[in-house]
Amino acid sequence: MVEKSFSVEGQEAVKSSLYQAKQGLSKKCALSDHFADFDMLRFGSNLCLGKDERLSRELLLDKLFKEGKSVSQNGFTLVYLKAELPVFYPAQAAFSVPKRFFKKATDRNTIKRHIREAYRKNKLPLYQKLVDNKYQLALMLIFKGKEVPDHGYVEKQVSELLIKLIERLK
Question: Does some domain include residue 2?
Fold first, then answer.
């Protein structure tokens, strides 16, 4: 029988906040002391949009649309709500493209893919603001344009929306 042993670096990795978030230990961290272990420097090098960062709880989505505030710009709407989330991350996001405007599922999926990518690249300033203020947000990004936009346009609009949101949170 072979015993597995961790090096000192491996033991630190187990204790790290990202490892805890990936292993599902995030609930304990979020509920006890929201962001005591959240390390922005380590998180900044890992620009991914994981499962825990996606908003999928139906009750929270209903509450978001009933009580949330919104910011709009050029066909994009960002609905947000300050809420205590059951995850380690400072924000959870969901993305939507209405079937009313885009009948083809391929078009809706392409636009959602562009929006997710733009959010993933531009979320760090928002996360920094939320960690500094010690609260969490539920977000929903909605595209209500009439034509399929290119990726450059989507990224510019999403980054501007996130900047507007950061300014509103001050």
Answer: no
DSSP state of 122: H
pLDDT at 87 over 70: yes
Q: What is the pLDDT of residue 48?
A: 84
Report the CATH number at residue 91. Answer: 3.30.230.10
| Residue 1, domain member (yes or no) | no
Residue type, 154: V
- Rounded CA-CA distance 43/41 in Å is 5
The number of folded domains in the chain is: 1
pLDDT tens digits for range 98-145: 999 999 999 999 999 999 999 999 999 999 999 998 889 999 999 999
Q: Which residues contact 5 (CB under 8 A, 6 or more apart)?
A: none
Query: Global pTM?
Result: 0.74
Question: Which stretches of 13-166 are assigned E, i.e. beta strand?
Answer: 69-73, 76-82, 91-96, 137-143
Q: 36-43 contacts: CB < 8 A, separation 24 or more? A: 38/88, 38/90, 38/131, 40/124, 40/127, 40/128, 40/131, 42/16, 42/17, 42/18, 43/17, 43/18, 43/124, 43/127
